[in-house]
Design a protein that fits this description.
With 434 residues, the chain is an all-alpha fold. Helices cover 80% and strands 0% of the residues. The protein has two domains: 2-125, no CATH class; 139-433, no CATH class.
């Protein structure tokens, strides 16, 4: 009995969620609308009942019910347009979507219905933000977004999902000079490499969009946190440069840098989890401690006193995605994979440690993490792989201190050194005890 009630209860809650937002909007704007909290709940419930009856009695019940709702919606829209000059289709489309979400509940797609209901409410409630974003959107940014769609959904599926290790490396090094261990792992797969490019570009692009949407309202610190998705290095460079003109804003700027550093761990978690499940489980405790430490430091600094003058900030980040950047990322990944494979088969882990260390200082950490995760368990032991990823991550974090020293206010460097000493202790504890 309870199983039969749950879909209807969830349907009512979804309708109420969207309805509250629409009712609030209607009351604030004093607008005439057919969609309020009661209508939203009833339409969602109507969708659930119609689908339930269609599944158990006759499929035409759903078709008739949805058609009737559509006709009523069209009549309502026509009436509001003629009599109250209400222009727009947002409420009408929302009404039909609510019916569909109720229908999804009836066929046990409850999680999908809840997710879509939340997304719909979010879209409806951020009208002003989205409109402001559209005003500030430049032609080049729109072009880059379309280009990202092309490389993600058109180019990626066309690439061959096979390895070309022997063909590419064999062009430079004769096959008879390569040890048997060379073929222990295959890394140069165009489909997988380009998929990683899409993931890296996608995460950075999402971070850029979030900064553009909310950055100016959130202030230096929280904009820095979003910047961790965009690029923790670029964000640190930007905040370091701002530190010269905002010498009184030590806590907010440092909070932004450390929040950006902490959020950048998300990419590492995603890459390692996708490429090597066992390595992910081995590095998770240590990296998670580092993540929590930096996040805690960032939040502690954020809740310090912040003057009104720096509550808002206008960032000048450029769109992180264009075709040239995508090709550069692909090139870095290919080189890192080739270097990793050749170094580990010919020179051993020590040479690879050196390459990884140098790369981290030049902010080329993502390709090293990818190559390490790819070769762990075959050409590289899990112990060495864990140490390399932790080393690269740690060095990439303290690189922000060098950025502040060379490009920012040198008075900010001393507290950063103290914080990094704490990070070193956390990192060593994670390696030794976990």
């Amino acid at each position: 009995m309870l199983q039969n009630i749950i879909p209807f209860a969830i349907s009512i809650l979804i309708g109420a969620l969207i309805g509250v937002e629409r009712e609030r909007k209607k009351q604030i704007d004093k607008e005439k609308s057919e969609l309020g909290i009661r209508t939203s709940i009833l339409v969602s419930l109507f969708g659930t009942i119609a689908t339930y009856l269609a599944v158990n009695l006759n499929a035409y019940i759903f078709l008739i019910s949805f058609s009737a709702l559509t006709i009523l919606t069209i009549i309502s829209h026509y009436y509001l347009t003629i009599n109250h000059k209400a222009i727009g289709l947002t409420n009408e489309i929302t009404l039909l979507l609510i019916f569909v979400y109720g229908s999804l509940c009836a066929i046990n797609h409850i999680q999908l219905a809840i997710a879509l209901g939340i997304i719909t409410t979010l879209i409806l409630s951020t009208k002003d933000t989205l409109h402001e974003f559209a005003k500030t959107l430049q032609t080049k940014e729109l072009y880059n977004a379309l280009l990202f769609g092309i490389i993600a959904f058109i180019i990626l599926p066309l690439l061959p999902n096979q390895n070309f290790d022997t063909q590419i490396v064999g062009y430079f090094i004769p096959q008879d000079l390569l040890p048997e261990t060379f073929n222990a792992v295959e890394v140069l797969n165009p489909f997988l490499i380009w998929m990683l490019v899409v993931v890296i570009s996608g995460i950075s692009f999402i971070g850029y969009i979030l900064i553009k949407l909310f950055g100016q309202r959130l202030g230096l610190s929280l904009s820095g946190m979003l910047g961790g998705l965009y690029s923790s290095t670029a964000t640190s460079l930007y905040l370091s440069q701002r530190s010269k003109e905002l010498s009184h804003a030590k806590k907010p700027i440092l909070a932004g840098i450390f929040l950006a550093s902490s959020i950048s761990f998300i990419k590492t978690f995603i890459f390692v989890k996708a490429l090597n499940e066992e390595l992910f489980l081995r590095i998770l405790p240590t990296l998670f401690l580092m993540f929590i430490y930096l996040l805690g430091v960032g939040l502690f600094l954020y809740f310090g006193k912040e003057t009104k003058k720096i509550q808002k900030t206008k960032t000048n980040f450029k769109s992180p995605f264009n075709l040239l950047n995508a090709l550069k990322i692909a090139g870095f990944i290919v080189m890192a994979l080739i270097f990793a494979k050749v170094a580990l088969t010919l020179g051993g882990p020590n040479l690879y440690y050196g390459i990884a260390t140098i790369s981290a200082f030049f902010a080329v950490d993502d390709p090293i993490v990818i190559s390490t995760a790819t070769t762990a368990g075959s050409l590289l032991s899990f112990f060495d792989a864990k140490l390399i990823i932790v080393l690269v991550t740690f060095l990439n974090m303290i690189q922000k201190g060098f950025i502040m020293y060379f490009f920012g206010n040198k008075k900010f460097v001393k507290p950063m050194i103290l914080i990094y000493l704490g990070l070193l202790l956390v990192t060593l504890s994670g390696i030794v005890y976990l």
